[in-house]
Structure formats: structure tokens, C-alpha cells
Amino acid sequence: MSCALVLLMTPGLAFFYGGMVRMKSVLNMMMMSVAALGIVSILWVLYGYSIALTKDEGGGLIGGLDAAGLDDTIADTGAALPETVFVAFQLMFAIITVALISGAIADRAKFSTWCVFVVLWASIVYFPVAHWVFHFGDDRNGDGNLVDPGWIVDMGVLDFAGGTAVHINSGAAALALCLVLGKRRGWRKDPMRPHNVPFVMLGAALLWFGWFGFNAGSAAAADNTAGVTFLNTQVATAAAVIGWLIVERIRDGHFTLLGGASGMVAGLVAITPSCNTVNPMGAIGIGAITGAICCAALSLKFKFGFDDSLDVVAVHMVGGLAGTLLIGVFATADAPAGVDGLLFGGGGEQLGKQAVGAFAVMGYSFVVTLILGLILHKTIGFRIDEDAEVEGIDVNEHGETAYELGAVGSPLARPTGGGAGLTHTVGGMAPGTTPRVDA
């Protein structure tokens, strides 16, 4: 059930991202998630699972190829949790991590190059990082003692469901690709408002629903740990919605549905690493703080001049960092992880460990993604040409459009038309800026 819930998150992400772009880009946005579903699933069977989650080949950095092809995983060993179920569950994490990156480069990336990038990034970045974070070691002697875990696990960094491997990892990669591809045509000049906010809400709802499989399912049993993580996931997300909306109201003067949906995702991101380390009050604290921080972080792209189309950096990288680091503050030994943070007299040791793990993943992902992106950009090209971008990436890359508008409304109606309205920073306008009114 948890595998299925996490799989549902990727189509949910497609709706979430698809609603936030202009109507001439919605199909391409969704297709980038579809590509991740298809490509990563095959890579996981061929070698991904083996590299990420089997016998360590030294230093806690990477697994071997002993399980390549998964030939030895399908035998029934009588285990309470069959290996095939674990393989499938972790596959769903790999898929959505790759898909998350796509939101940063909406409207302007060649689909064929994106597919090549998916192969390279999953192989060189995600699979090794998953080994660092999710490989807890092997029972090589059959005595129940696990040896040679991933180096982040071995250090004692707490990350229950992937704040580092999924969110910081994808957020840092998103930032690197923003720099490689550059800004969209008309960024900060033309209105680039979401074309379908109900799609955004639908996607956020599917993500929240599926995230219970993501977090509670990581307990690998229907036990107290699953119950604690389920409850913490709910209340942290609720608190993040409130935190986000308060900042949005103070800054822009409105409570927006787009902001509420974004606050949901920010809270889900933050509680992912910490859901088994805190009590419900701690979860509320993490959610509220992260919702507010992520909303405020939307301004970073305007301050530093990078075009993160759908705010992947602000929500996933910043949210992942906040959730991972706040473990060192809000963790309590009463929670399943059994560690005290600063508020419970644990000192700063755990916070230091969390910082090392978080920034190591962020640095590795950013640097390697930047190199991969530049190589692809300089060889096969990563960005569509200007005419195709202006006309619309859907019709040029995929030969289809999301909506047939020829018989609807005035023949003078423009797809990008409209009046003043949403001032959420998704797109090209700064916080508090009213977009110009199209004729």
C-alpha cells in the first residue's frame, strides 16, 4: 500500500507543476514526470537498486553490482518483509526525486536532453546518495549485526524518509540546472501566472495523501513508529500551511490558494527527515517554521537573479535543509529515534551531525549536476530555441496542446491574457508585484 501511495505522488507532482506553468507548457511539464517514471524504473532494475542498497564496496560511498538485474531478489525466503517489496518501495523514492528537479526548468528544456539527464543524474547522483542515506548495512555474518552502512548513516545523521537524499538532493540539482539553462524569455517582464490553480490544488492533495506512504511507510511495519510518523506528518503539514499563509498575507496582502498548496508541500518536505524524531508539538514547530521560511525564501531567486520557474529551490532545498537541521533542535528521546535535541537537553552534537549530512549532500548534488548540465548543454543542447519557447514548448517538443481553444470565446482572446490577479512568485514576477494587464 505504501509503495502505491508513493507512486501516486509522481502523477500528483505532474498536476502540481502542470497547473503552475502557462497553458503552452503544461504537457511538457507533465511529460518530464512521465519520463522519470519510465526511465528510472528500468534503471532501478538494471543496476540502481544494487548500487544504492546492497553490499557496500568500501567507505560507505557506493554499493556494488551483485544485485544487478534483481535475479536474486525474487526468491521467497519467508521474510516478513520480502525484498521485492523493499525494492519496489525504494524505487518510488528514486522516481519522484528525479521528477522534482523538473519544476526549476519549466518552459525551456529540450525533452530529449531531459531524458538523457535523467539517466545520468539518477546513476551518478541519486543512486550513490541513496546508498549514503538509506543503506543501513549488511548482515554478512548472519548474526543480526549490520556492517558497512552508508557513511551518512554511520555518522549518526538522522533522516527517516529522505530529507537529504530526496529534497536537498533534488533542490540543489534544481539550482544548478537553473544556472545552466538561464532565464526564460521575458522573465520578470511578462506575466507568467499559473494557468490552472485547481490543478495545483489537486496535485498538492495527491502529494499530501501519498506522503503518508512516503513517511509512515518508511517504518516498514504497521507499528508505533508508523503511527508516530503518520501523525507528525499530518500536523507538521497543517502548521506549514498556516506559517506560509501568514507570511504571504503580511508580504502581499492576500491569502492565496496557490500559497496554501505550496505551504502543504513545504511542510511535507520538512517533516520527511524528522517524522520519527519528534513529538507532535515538535512537528508543529518544524512545520510552522519551515512554512514561513520557505515562503520568505521565494524572494531569493529575485535577489540573486536565477530563474527557478516553480520554486523548487525555495520549497525543496530550503525546506529540506530546515527539516533536517531542526531535528537537532526539536528531537526528543521519547520519539522512536530516541535522540534528544537542544530543546530537550541533548546539546549541539546532533545538530552538528545533521549539518554535515545536509550540506555534504547539497554540495555533491550541486557540483555534479552543474557539470552534467554544462556537458549536455554544450554538446547536444539543453535549451529549446527562442522561437520554440515563444510559440510554446508543448507544440514544438510534443506536437500537441493541452487545450483546444479554437471554438471557445472571442477570436481575439489571447491564451496569456488576463488582468491583475495572482501575485504569487511562481513565474517571473517579484513578490507584491502586480503583473501588467494584457490587451
Model description:
60% of the residues lie in helices and 0% in strands. With 439 residues, it is mostly helical. The longest helix has 31 residues, at 349-379. The radius of gyration is 21 Å and the shape is globular. The protein has helices at 2-20, 26-53, 83-101, 111-134, 151-155, 163-181, 197-215, 224-252, 257-274, 280-297, 300-304, 312-325, 327-330, 349-379, 386-391, 393-398. The relative contact order is 0.15. The chain has 16 helices and no strands. It has one domain (2-379): Ammonium transporter fold, CATH 1.10.3430.10. The model is unreliable at 408-425 and 431-439 (pLDDT under 50).
> What does the overall shape look like?
globular
**Over the alpha carbons, how many angstroms does the gyration radius reach?**
21 Å
Number of domains: 1
Q: What fold name stands as the CATH topology?
A: Ammonium transporter fold
How large is the share of residues in beta strands?
under 5%
Count of distinct strands: 0
Membrane topology: Multi-pass membrane protein
Family: Belongs to the ammonia transporter channel (TC 1.A.11.2) family.
Domain Ammonium transporter AmtB-like: 2-403
Subcellular location: Cell membrane; Membrane
Short characterization:
The chain is mainly α and 439 residues long.
Strands, helices and their partners?
Layout: H1 2-20, H2 26-53, H3 83-101, H4 111-134, H5 151-155, H6 163-181, H7 197-215, H8 224-252, H9 257-274, H10 280-297, H11 300-304, H12 312-325, H13 327-330, H14 349-379, H15 386-391, H16 393-398
Helix pairs in contact: 1-2, 1-3, 1-7, 2-3, 2-4, 3-6, 4-6, 4-14, 6-12, 6-14, 7-8, 7-9, 8-9, 8-10, 9-10, 9-12, 10-12, 12-14
